[in-house]
Design brief:
Helices cover about 25% and strands about 35% of the residues. It is α+β, with helices and mostly antiparallel strands and about 325 residues long. Helix 2 crosses helix 6 and helix 4 crosses helix 5.
C-alpha cells in the first residue's frame, strides 16, 4: 500500500491512509507511522483507563496495554499505540466510515501518540503573537475559536484549533496542529462575512481560507494560557480582564482541559497530573473574563496584543 508523509502537530506522520486535511511533508523521516490492518472483528484488551463521548451516543475508551496504549471507538474500532508513540495500528472493522476514522486519527489517536512520547495535549485553541504562543481553554460554546479568529484577523497566526500539543521542558513550547477555525454562524458572519442563514439551527463553518502569513508553522514558546470565563459585563466597562491562577489552581485547570483527560484516568492520572504541574510551574495560567459580545471581540484581541506583543523569541524555534 502506498504511504504518504504529512505534517501535523509539529512532526511528520507516515500513513497508509490518505488524509486530505493534512498538508504533505517533505521530511526525510517520520515521527509516527500509521498502519492499517483489516479486521473481521475488533475488541480491546488491557487496563481500562477511562471513557469519553465522541458525539451523540458514540463513545471512545482508553486502555493501557502491556506494549503501549489503545483507544476503542464504537464506530471506527481499535487503534493501538506503541509504548513510545511511534507506531499506530488501526484495526479497521468492516463498514467503518473513512471520514470518521480520519477525524479520530487527527484528534484523539495522535494525541495519544503524543502522550506516549511525553507530550501533553490540551483541548484548546492557540495562536502566536509575534512568536509568543497563547492558548485558550474552555468547553464548547465558550468562544475559543471566535477569539482566535479575531486575533488572527488582528495580526496573530493560527497555531491549532481543538488539539494543542505542549512540548515540556524548561521553556515549554506550543506546536502547530490543525490551524482550521470552526465558527458558529453568528461569529462567522461577524468576523468573516459569511452570510447568515434563515434557519435557526446552529452549525459550524470551516474557515479554511487563511493566508500562509496567518498560519504558524513553527513551534513557539508557550507564554500564557487563558481559561475563558464569559461574563455579561465588567465593573470598569472594559471588554476583558485577567486574573492569574496560583500553581495548584493552574495545574487543575490544565488537567481539566487535557485533550485526553477523560480517557487517561485511573492508573495514568498521575502521569497527566505531573505533566500539567510541570507546565503550570513554567507558564502563567490566567482566568480571562470576557464580555460575551461579538461587537467587542476586537477590543479583547487588542488587549491580548498589548499584553503579549514583544514576548516572542527573536529566533524562531525549529527554523
Amino acid at each position: 500500500m502506498t504511504q504518504r508523509l504529512y505534517e501535523v502537530f509539529g512532526g511528520t506522520l507516515r500513513s497508509e491512509l490518505q488524509i486530505a486535511e493534512l498538508p504533505d511533508s517533505h521530511a526525510a523521516a517520520s515521527d509516527w507511522t500509521l498502519q492499517v490492518v483489516e479486521a473481521t472483528s475488533s475488541t480491546m484488551d488491557g487496563e481500562l483507563l477511562g471513557v469519553d463521548t465522541v458525539f451523540g451516543e458514540t463513545r471512545v475508551r482508553g486502555f493501557r496495554r502491556s506494549d503501549g496504549f489503545g483507544l476503542f471507538f464504537d464506530d471506527t474500532g481499535r487503534f493501538d499505540v506503541s509504548a513510545d508513540g511511534s507506531v499506530i495500528t488501526w484495526y479497521r472493522p468492516p463498514g467503518a466510515v473513512l471520514e470518521s476514522a480520519q477525524a479520530d486519527i487527527t484528534s484523539r489517536v495522535l494525541a495519544l501518540a503524543l502522550h506516549a512520547s511525553g507530550i501533553f495535549t490540551l483541548h484548546a485553541s492557540a495562536v502566536s503573537i509575534e512568536g509568543a504562543g497563547i492558548s485558550f481553554l474552555a468547553p464548547k460554546l465558550h468562544g475559543k475559536s471566535t477569539l482566535c479568529s479575531a486575533l488572527v484577523l488582528a495580526g496573530a497566526r493560527a497555531l491549532s484549533d481543538d488539539t494543542v500539543p505542549v512540548r515540556l521542558g524548561k521553556e515549554p513550547l506550543l506546536s502547530p496542529g490543525l490551524p482550521r477555525l470552526r465558527l458558529w454562524t453568528d461569529a462567522a458572519a461577524r468576523l468573516f462575512g459569511v452570510e447568515q442563514e434563515e434557519s435557526s439551527t446552529l452549525r459550524k463553518h470551516l474557515m479554511s481560507r487563511l493566508e500562509d502569513t496567518q498560519v504558524e508553522t513553527r513551534s513557539v514558546p508557550f507564554r500564557a494560557a487563558y481559561v475563558l470565563n464569559p461574563v455579561t459585563e465588567l465593573p470598569d466597562g472594559s471588554a476583558a480582564s485577567r486574573e492569574r491562577l496560583d500553581t495548584v489552581a493552574a495545574t487543575i485547570s490544565l488537567v481539566m482541559h487535557a485533550k485526553l483527560g477523560p480517557v487517561l484516568t485511573g492508573g495514568e492520572s498521575p502521569v497527566v497530573l505531573s505533566m500539567a504541574a510541570d507546565i503550570a510551574r513554567a507558564v502563567p495560567v490566567h482566568v480571562l473574563n470576557v464580555v460575551r459580545d461579538l461587537d467587542r471581540v476586537d477590543e479583547v484581541a487588542r488587549l491580548l496584543f498589548t499584553w503579549h506583543a514583544g514576548e516572542g523569541d527573536a529566533a524562531s524555534v525549529g527554523e
